[in-house]
Structures are given as structure tokens and as C-alpha cells.
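Lecture 7, part B: from sequences to assemblies.

Below are the input chains for today's worked example.
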Amino acid sequence: MIGFSALLLLAYSGRISGISGIVSQLLIFRDRRILFPIVYISGLLSGSVIGLYYLQLPTPKIETDWLLLILAGLLVGFGAHLGSGCTSGHGVCGIGRFSVRSIAATCTFLCTGAATVFIVALFT
Amino acid sequence: MRTNPNLSYYFYIVVFLCSALFALGLQISGMVDPQKVLGFLSISRQWDPSLALVLFAALAVFSLGYRYLIKPRIDTQQPSILGMAYQLPKVTVLDKPLLLGAAIFGIGWGLAGLCPGPAIVNLVHFDAKILAFVAAMLVGIKISQWYKNHSTVDCSISNPSDR
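Predicted structure of the full complex, as C-alpha cells:
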């Protein structure tokens, strides 16, 4: 479903479903190109409301404490922008196009992610 | 490319439907659950392979579609179905910002179990921790944008559509 949605978007409109990229475009208030990220994010939120209603999803439990959570948010935002992509952009659309950059980026964040989980587990 | 106003109208409908579908996909697959993501990233304890299957399935669908539907159009210089040009990254070299950024992103992902897509999808729960995470994430993106604009290091090759 994720792959299908990303494929449809690229086939019809020529755009890549990279969430971090779309969010960053939202933060550059330059011209009317901002309409694309606004529509995309409205769609994400609408889809999730529908999902919330039909799937009866519980509020996700976040056990990370506040300080680490804020730090994590900063790192995710900074890293995804600096590295030109996140799980959706590099992990699905990038690797799917056989991009060497995306394969390298995905391997890198999977490794540091797993290493972080491992280290956190040592302290809890 | 967007001379026909109807096309632009269709463009936003497609964008809206695709993103709604994307959000549902994240919810159904469990990508929105930070505990599940941390279980997927945890190699030492009980590894939860379900998200690996999700990513693999998404990748399989996307790459097959790309290979047989989109690549032939790009190779023959055709635009997308609605007539807009494909906006694909042109950079192919592995550079420092890419790998450093990915490494930093991975650390944040491993700390909270949230990446940008699921974090935004989870906003609908109006949970204080999710709101805080997304706010911090936006600040992080803004810092990186500022850093890329002001750094003397040559990051300029990472063009804005490179995502």
C-alpha cells in the first residue's frame, strides 16, 4: 500500500513521496509551490483520521522520556534534511530507483538506528 | 508545464489521494507504532521482522512499477501521466552531508522510534509527546536549512529537489 501510493504519485505527478522533503518545502515560505506540501500533508492527516476511525488505533505509547524525545525530534529533523531524505524518500523511493545514494543512506540510518536501540537497551 | 488549469486541479487531487493512502498504509502496517519500530531496530533482543516485511513489500511494489512503468517513460523523455516533468534527484555522488545526515537521522529514529511520516500521521492522536516530537523535528529541519544556506562547505550540490 505504501509502495503503491508512492508509485501512483510518481507516475501521475512526477513527485517523490519523501515525507521529510515535503515537510521541508513547507518550511520554505517562498512562492505558491508551497501548495504541494500543504495538500500532501492535509492528505496524510485526512488519511490518518479515516484510519483512526476505522482501525480504532490506540494512542501510541512513547516510553522515551521528554528530554530524549525532544533530542530525537531535533536529530530526526536535522539529519533527514541534511541527508536529503528519510525512511520514505531513501528507503522506498530511493532504493526503488536503485539510487546508490539512497542505498548508502538507508544502510547508514538502519545501522545507527540499530546501534542506538542497542545502546539505549544497555541503560534501561 | 501547468498551463492547463484542469491539470493542476487533477494534480492536487492525485497528491491528496496518494498521501491519504500513504497514511493508511503506515497505520495498517504498524509503522506508526514506535514500540514496533524499536522492536524492528532491536537486533539484540527479540527482533520483530514484521516491519522488515512491510518495507520489503513497499520496495518491491515501487521498484517493479518504477522499472516497468516509469523508467521507460523517463528514458523516452515523456513526462508523467498528468504532464508534469518528473522531479527526481540528479545528484549521484556519495557526499558527507548525505552520510552524516543519515547517521544523525538514524540515531534520532532509534531513540524515539518515530520518523517523519509516522510522526505526522500520529499527530491526529493529539498526544503531547507526539506534538513535542514534531515541533522539535520542524526545528531540526529549520536548523539544517539554515546550516546548508550558511555553511562554507560545498553543500550546494544537494539541490532542493534532492529528496
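Note for the exam: Chain A has a mean pLDDT of 90. Keep this in mind when comparing with the next example.
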